[in-house]
Input
Amino acid sequence: MTPTRRLTAEFLGTALLLAAVVGSGIMGDRLSGGNVAIALLANTIATGATLMTLILTFGPVSGAHFNPAVTLADASQGGISWREAPGYIAAQVVGALVGVWAAHLMFGEPVELLHGSLLFDLISFLHSDSLLFLGRKSTVGLLWPPV
Output
């Protein structure tokens, strides 16, 4: 695959993943009637299904990292070259911002780049326990192989 195709796959996959994670969180919150367990269940199922679909779709193209930590781990093990890693990370960061922005637009939430929801949500996500849960949810793709 060409570098452009790999970076495009990382951008699109990351954008779609973040749109699904944030969008299913918003929708689960709105539909759960205050029941946090139902909201978390809806978010988990949607995220797991989306992640599995994205891995199957973009894995053959780029490796389906969708996360700078995965890219750095893959580079450290020789899966991709260190020279490719900055491009992957840039595509993932921009894709994450676009995905969160898209989810906010889909659900009529405000989109503010600096002080408000978009960047704040992304930073909050990166500094919270959400990455731990996302990591657990991502194992759905590993434990539930396609038939």
Observations:
- DSSP finds six helices and no strands in the chain.
- The helical segments are 3-31, 36-62, 68-76, 85-106, 117-126, 130-143.
